[in-house]
Write the structure tokens for this entry.
Amino acid sequence: MMTLLHFWGPADPSWSSSISATPKTCSTDCLTEPPRPQTSPSAFSVRSSTRGSGTVPSGLQKQPKKDLSRILRTESAIRGIEKKANSSKYSRLWPKAVLEALDEAIRDNRHDSTLKIFGLLRKQHWYKPRCQTYTKLLMMLGKCRQPQQASLLFELMLSEGLTPTLDVYTALVSAYGQSGLIDEAFSTVESMKSVSDCRPDVYTYSILISCCIRFHHFEQIDRILAEMSYLGIECSSVTYNTVIDGYGKAGMFEQMERSLMDMIDSGSCLPDIFTFNSVVSAYGRSRHINDMERWYEEFQLMGIRPDIITFNILIRSYGRSGMYEKMASVLDYMEKRFFSPTVATYNIITDAYGKAGDLGKMDDYFKKMKHQGIKPTSVTYCSLVNAYSKVGLVSKVDSILRQVSNSDVKLDTAFFNCVISAYGKAGEVEKMSNMFQMMKERKCWPDNITYATLIQAYTAQGMTEAVRDLEAKAQG
């Protein structure tokens, strides 16, 4: 792997910098950085600075999706900048081209391209190091699971004479934590305590908690909360919701309810719809239906009203528990309260009836879904294929494929795995092989499940040569 420093080249004190063209010191930059986010605990992102200001007409505030031509132009621009990054002679490029290419690469989490473009940025005569730029790069490297590159980037930042800000340190904590390097994340937090104006705040600790939960270091949660209390840092709603959701997904219901009580007792952070859905989902996922229903009522007594996600959770939970009458009653309730089912709602219902073998109900809801103008997704078709395969209705699988070929649904590897499995179980080796070929043509790359399914089907047919060929491809 090419190292980070290889992309960037040697430092040169004559290079000035900023992701804007206005020279600023690091301390000045810190004052102009965007406010620290306090919303979703899983949204480890730093908002890009806005180019220009002014009132946007209300009719133009909603940006349309990039069309194909815009995407192609962006791809071309990034490739063009990348080519220049590999040369040492481009030091007077137009700032707008370099900065836009860098922004696009960061937004798309293309870490290799981003580092090359950043190396080119550092060569420009108008470049000045800026803390906000490094923060965005560190956050992107965290999302891409590149902790080593993040560490090298941090060292490079220090070598450029910048003093890390709170946001920079927090981004580094996130980069380590999202890759499971919990010790390094804690070590970074300790380093923050010794730096003036960089003491960890509630956002830093919320990220640290989220990373500990993701990698099942639940023993660290109480330690972090105790440290926050000692430092006088109050938990935010995000912090409480992160802890509650984490304990719930791990089936640690006693700790989940204790954290919920702490949230209520705090007086400053009351439960909200995210808390509601986390608790209800935790019990529903584990088929603790009585507890799920109890908390469903409790939260409403607190004045929190269910939303469409809540109803989807109830439907899924009842479906998993085989309580189809209650599942239907939730749908009736939604209709009376003018909650429109979403594609997720219908996917849950078709999957539940499909697994129950009630193909009549499954087909009815699939037709209703299309009648209401809701486009089926790859998930919908997977449920249908699995249900038909389970009872040996291969002709129905053929019908699904015809529907898919006449639609604009975006297929994925999971869908092809379902169809390959269905044909394999039915002994339709030729159709299975055709699907494998179509899968590659659609740029849905085979995974371990694909190869295991094919090998099992070929083995059952005594096709040893085909098995050896697939095993070689799977290992390659």
Remarks:
- The longest helix spans residues 68-85.
- Residues 1-28+73-162 form one domain.
- The CA atoms of residues 48 and 103 lie 8 Å apart.
